[in-house]
């Protein structure tokens, strides 16, 4: 049995195994094994593993395994923060990301964030953590102090932090995390009258609310609210360590903070999950449908049945924000369909799922088939299942699938599902909310394809329409998301935060062109990007991305040939394009050569192709494309 927010104790030896690897000098050489070794570790083992992993040489790991996703993280704040590095290292490693930490000096956060020439900015971090604690306010109070003094200090501190956030945001690179301030009782209790305590509490919450609003004001800032973590019973501080070691937040809170940052780091490196696949028996309802029948399963109507209904409500909530929902269950399809459509306790409906698979095949086979149908990798899947056997089987056969083992107590299921933030993202867009509908439409396209004798006939009848135009301000978040979530047709592997997209689009001679598509089955929304740059008589394609949802329809070819034609029409003598191989884009290596480009340079990790614009093939006849190229001023 697990408890909410913890991992099932599937193993107790990985920390020792990591120590053995490190002691033998093999940790860097065997680093790809680390993610599997950390899977399922309880919090105390994970913390110990972090201390071992923090000793690994990141440069050596990258020399041996150059495709390892890596993120440079700068840590700054008011107090001593070295204790944050081990749990942060472990949390990143658990998601397959290598941490490169940059730790600022004690209480240097104002200088480090306020001066673009500081060592923090020089480190080139993709993520900056400014860890705030209550002492940033109380260290500046007079003695004695009043609630009014705290209000004044809070106003000044929030104004100062806003200025630091604005400075960071203007740089147009990376993400800054600012957390809310806990308010321990040892401060409020120093005011002996309840009226002053209430005034202090109100001022403190208002200041935190203003901090949380920074995310709306500055695109590069992510506020992290610590209140939900504290509500789990985690102490805000360790007074003894604070007094003698200069720490601000407790080790337990820093470890929980590190987990939240691990979720963000996973997202920033393009590893956010997309699909939640649920079991049925013991997961979406209690009991076994095949044995108990539709009337015997536990779903609504009783306290235990209501617990399963509550779990379904959470699953439906995730689906409403763009998470693709699916079912794989060892059951006969007829009874499953009858329950999904007709059981009065069901919260989820058949239309909430992109696919419901009920059969007796091994679950790894079903997951692989679903991944193929959706044109997604299985590493974008999360499986929620109550069976230890099925979870172990999937972990072994498909190690890229995130497996959430649900225990026997259904009251803990919600906590177990949500504790790892598998689907966390910077912002939920209109495109995200439409994603489940669009993937269901994609399955309809596949059924439509099956009615044709040839792919060419299918494409002709699909009525594909494409627009290519500069990304508008309202589309910046979606454009950034495409760079974070697109792997197979991301021709350089480069990922961009919203501020970077905005900055690239603003530079003279640059274009960030959004690709929108649709067809007879519906509107696909923004599905790709082309980033171009003019340098004299040369046009450079810095990157080209297209969602796997719309592969093999001629969209990428039509857009590329439009870019070539526009370059020639505006006086360019050639177009150069870069291709950087990654672990997942090997299938797109031939895209530029197949469209008339010649390899002109091999820079080791980057191939440079050139098109002389003498002969440009027409776009595919079945694609109706409109393009707009606006000059940046």
TrEMBL record:
Database matches in InterPro entries: Acyl_CoA_acyltransferase, FkbH_domain, HAD-like_sf, HAD_sf, HAD_SF_ppase_IIIC, SGNH_hydro_sf
UniProt xrefs under SUPFAM superfamilies: Acyl-CoA N-acyltransferases (Nat), HAD-like
Superkingdom, natural source: Bacteria
UniProt protein name: FKbH-like protein
Gene3D superfamilies: 3.40.630.30, HAD superfamily/HAD-like, SGNH hydrolase
């Amino acid at each position: 049995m697990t408890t909410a927010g913890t991992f099932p104790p599937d193993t107790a030896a990985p920390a020792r195994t990591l120590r053995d690897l490190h002691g033998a000098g093999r940790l860097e050489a065997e680093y790809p094994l680390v993610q599997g070794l950390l899977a399922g570790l309880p919090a105390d083992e994970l913390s110990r593993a972090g201390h071992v992993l923090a000793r690994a040489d990141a440069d050596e790991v990258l020399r041996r395994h150059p495709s390892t996703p890596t993120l440079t993280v700068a840590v700054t704040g008011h107090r001593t923060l070295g204790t944050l590095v081990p749990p942060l290292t472990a949390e990143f490693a658990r998601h397959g990301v290598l941490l490169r930490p940059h730790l600022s000096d004690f209480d240097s956060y104002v200088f480090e964030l306020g001066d673009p020439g500081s060592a923090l900015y020089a480190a080139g971090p993709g993520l900056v953590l400014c860890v705030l604690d209550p002492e940033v306010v109380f260290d500046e109070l007079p003695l004695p102090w009043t609630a009014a003094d705290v209000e004044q200090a809070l106003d000044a501190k929030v104004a100062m932090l806003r200025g630091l956030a604005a400075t960071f945001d203007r740089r147009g690179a990376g993400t800054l995390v600012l957390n809310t301030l806990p308010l321990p009782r040892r401060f409020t209790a120093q005011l002996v009258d309840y009226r002053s305590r209430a005034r202090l509490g109100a001022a403190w919450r208002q200041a935190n609310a203003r901090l949380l609003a920074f995310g709306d004001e500055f695109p590069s800032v992510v506020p992290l609210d610590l209140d939900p973590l504290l509500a789990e019973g985690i102490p805000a501080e360790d007074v003894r360590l604070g007094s003698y070691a200069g720490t601000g937040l407790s080790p337990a809170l820093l470890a929980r903070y590190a987990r939240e940052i691990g979720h963000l780091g996973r997202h920033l490196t393009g590893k956010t999950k997309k699909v939640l696949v649920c079991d049925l028996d013991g997961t979406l309802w209690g009991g076994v449908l095949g044995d108990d029948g539709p009337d015997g399963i536990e779903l609504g109507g009783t306290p235990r049945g209501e617990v399963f209904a509550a779990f379904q409500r959470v699953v439906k909530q995730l689906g409403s924000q763009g998470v693709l929902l699916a079912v794989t269950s060892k059951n006969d399809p007829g009874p499953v369909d009858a329950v999904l459509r007709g059981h009065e306790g069901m919260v989820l409906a058949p239309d909430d799922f992109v696919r419901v698979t009920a059969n007796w095949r091994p679950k790894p086979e079903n997951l692989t088939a679903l991944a193929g149908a959706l044109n997604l990798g299985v590493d974008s899947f999360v499986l929620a299942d109550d069976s230890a056997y099925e979870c172990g089987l999937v972990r072994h056969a498909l190690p890229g699938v995130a497996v959430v083992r649900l225990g026997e107590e259904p009251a803990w299921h919600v906590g177990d599902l949500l504790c790892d933030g598998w689907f966390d993202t910077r912002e939920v867009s209109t495109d995200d909310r439409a994603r489940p509908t669009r993937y269901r439409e994609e399955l309809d396209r596949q059924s439509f394809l099956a009615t044709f004798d040839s792919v060419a006939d299918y494409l002709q009848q699909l009525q594909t329409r494409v627009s290519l135009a500069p990304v508008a301000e309202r589309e910046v978040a979606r454009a950034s998301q495409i760079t974070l979530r697109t792997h197979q047709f991301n021709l350089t592997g480069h990922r961009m935060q919203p501020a970077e997209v905005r900055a690239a689009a603003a530079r003279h001679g640059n274009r960030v062109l959004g690709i929108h598509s649709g067809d007879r089955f519906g509107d696909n929304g923004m599905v790709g990007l082309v980033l171009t740059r003019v340098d004299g008589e040369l046009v450079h394609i810095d990157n080209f991305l297209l969602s796997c949802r719309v592969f093999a329809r001629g969209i990428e070819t039509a857009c590329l040939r439009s870019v070539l034609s526009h370059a020639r029409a505006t006086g360019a003598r050639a177009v150069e394009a870069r291709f950087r191989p990654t672990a997942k884009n090997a299938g797109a290596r031939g895209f530029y050569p197949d469209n008339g480009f010649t390899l002109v340079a091999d820079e080791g990790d980057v191939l440079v192709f050139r098109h002389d614009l003498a002969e440009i093939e027409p776009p595919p006849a079945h694609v109706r494309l409109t393009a707009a190229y606006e000059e940046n001023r």
